[in-house]
Amino acid sequence: MITNTKGGAVEITNIETIPGKKITTHYGVVCGSTVRSKNAFKDIGASFKNMFGGELKNYTRLLEETRQEAISRMIQQATALGANAIVNVRFATSDVAAGAAEIYTYGTAVRVE
Amino acid sequence: MKFEPRYCEVNVNVPTHNHFREFIRLSLWLLGIVFGVYFVLGYAAEKIAERMPPKFEVAIATGITSNFAQSGFPRTSNYLQKILDSLVTPAEGLPPFTYKVTVDDQAAVNAVALPAGNIVVFKGLLSELKTENEVAMILAHELGHYAHRDHLRGLGRGLVLLSITALLGLSGDLPGFIAPSVLTFDLKHSRDRESAADRYAIDLFARAYGHAGGTTDVFKVLASHEGGIKRPDIISTHPDTLWRMQTLASYLQLKKYPIGPIMPLPESGVLPFLNDRKGKVE
Q1: Which residues contact residue A90 at a Cβ distance below 8 angstroms, ignoring those fewer than 6 apart?
Q2: Which residues 64-93 in chain A show a CB within 8 A of chain B?
Q3: CA B212/CA B206 separation, integer angstroms
Q4: Number of Cβ pairs closer than 8 Å across A and B?
Q5: Cα–Cα distance list, B50 to A27, B149, B188, B268 (Å)
Q6: Are the C-beta atoms of residues A96 and A1 closer than 8 Å to each other?
C-alpha cells in the first residue's frame, strides 16, 4: 500500500521488506492510535437493523474511518522521522469503555532505496 | 542497513485541542438536542390534543385519574356533582364524556381538569369557597378547559408518551416521571387559555343560572390566598388574579348579563361539609 503524504509517498506493508527495494536505514517503531465512541443516534439505527439482520453499515463506516485515522497518524510519525516506508505493519484493538474502542496500528519506520 | 533510532517531538496520537472548549461545544450540542426534542414533543402533543377522539382519551385517562385518591367526602362530592350536572346540560362544545367531580384531600388551592371529564377539586380550594356561585364558577371554568381541549394540552409532553403506551396496549399506569407534571397540571396551561376558560365559565354560568351574579367573587378568594404576592406575568401561567378580575368585569359589562343573587351553600360553614369523611368523625 502506498500512501501519499506531505512528505511524499510512504509505502506501507505488513511483510518485513519492500519487494524490489533495499532497506538502508531503520528508524524504530512508529504507531498511530485513535479511540472512537459509537454515536447514540447511530445506535438507534443499528438496533432497528438488529431486528432484521444484515450489515451494520454505520459501524462499518465508523471502524473504517477509525482505521484510516490510525494509519494516517502512523504515517505522520514516520515522515517526521524521515522514513519513506513502514514495514511489518500490524493492527490491534482494545475496548476502552462501554461503546468506545481503540484502533492501534504500529510498524517499523525505514528508508528504502 | 543501519539503525538510527529517532523520536518524534510531537506525538500525533495525543490531540492538543482545548478540552474546556470541547466540553462547552458538546454541552451546547446536547442542550440543543434536548430543546429540540422538547419542542417537537410539545408540538406533537398539541396536534394529538386537537385530534384525539374521546374514546382514546378515556383509555389514557385511567392512568392519570388513578393518581388521585377516591373522594373521602361523599356528601360534598354529591353536592359538587349536582352543580356540575346542572352546568353540563346547557354547556356548549363539550366533548361527549361523563363528567365527574371528586374531592382530593390536599391543601392546594386549585382544581384540575383531567382527561375524559374527570375534574378534581382540592380540599384547599373548597375550604375557601363560601357560596354556590363560587363553586359553580370553579366547575364552569374547568368545563371551559374541556370545551377548548386545554385539558389535553395541559398534559403537554407526557401526553405523547401516554398515547404511545395506550396505543401499545400497555397498562394505564402513569409513568413515574410524568406524574409530577400531572399534579402540577394547571401550570401547563397558558395564560390565554385560562382567560378563555374564564370567559367560557361566565357565559356558561349565565346560561345555567340566568344571571352572572357573584361570578368574579371566586377570584377575590384566589387573590386573598395569594396574599398580595404578585409573580411576574412572564413566569406565571395563570394570569394575575387582579388582572383576571378586571378583564372579567369588562367582559360582564360587554355581555350585559343581569346580576342575580348570591346563593348560599346548602349547609352552614364551609366546604367540605362538616363530618363528611368516610370512616371518620371530625
Answers
A1: A14, A105, A106, A107
A2: 73, 76-77, 80-82
A3: 5
A4: 38
A5: 73, 7, 16, 43
A6: no
pTM above 0.90, yes or no: no
List pLDDT tens digits, range B98-110.
999 988 888 888 8
SS3 B62: helix
Centre a 10 Å sphere on the Cβ of residue B136 and count the other Cβ atoms it contains: 25
CA neighbor of B137 nearest in space, from B256, B260, B231, B224: B260
Q: Where are the alpha helices (DSSP H) in A1-113?
A: 40-52, 57-81
Q: How far apart are CA B43 and CA B38, in angstroms?
A: 9
Give the per-residue pLDDT at A7: 52
The answer to whether the CB of B87 falls within 8 A of the CB of B139 is yes
Beta bridge mates, A90: A106
For cell 416521571, the residue is B177
User: Residue B152 is placed in which grid cell?
Assistant: 389535553
Query: Rounded to whole angstroms, how far apart are CA atoms A110 and A82?
Result: 8
Whether residues A27 and B6 touch (CB distance < 8 A) is answered with yes
How far apart, in Å, are the Cα atoms of B241 and each of B49, B145, B191, B212?
A: 27, 18, 11, 18
How many whole angstroms separate alpha carbon B205 and alpha carbon B194? 16
Contact A84, A108 (CB under 8 A): no
Residues 6+ apart with CB under 8 A from B183: B67
Alpha-carbon distance of B218 to B244, in angstroms, equals 11
Model confidence pLDDT, tens digit, residues B139-187: 999 999 999 888 777 666 666 656 655 655 554 454 444 444 444 443 4
| Residues B53, B57, B59: CA angle, nearest 5 degrees | 120
If you ran DSSP here, which 8-state letter would residue A37 be given? E
Mutation target vs B (from A10, A23, A26; most B CBs, 10 A cutoff) = A26
